[in-house]
User: Fold this.
Amino acid sequence: NGKEPVRKRVRKMGRKVSYDEKIEIVKWVLKHNHDYKQAAQKFDITYSRAYAWTQKYEQANDWTALKDRRGKTRSRQPADREKQLLKEIRDLKAKLREREVRLPSQKN
Assistant:
């Protein structure tokens, strides 16, 4: 064949951007008539990140929309937690009773 194998381009991970920096970027984009391309160059991020953060803010009209919540669990309602603990207690008591029945008392 004689052709060299085609190499796939490995995408570079974007740099880490803090919550405060996201706010600064979105404010800049809004002040500069939604110029995402210029924001991307100025802040060393991608066009799509500038666009996505601005859209998130505009839809929610709340800066907390820019927070990264990945890996965070939803908070449970106290009633759910109480039910879960009561079930756990019942299960443990049942296991204990089962163990006492299987292993006769070893008292002398």
Observations:
- The chain has a mean pLDDT of 86.
- The chain has one domain: 19-68+75-102.
- The first helix runs from residue 19 to 31.
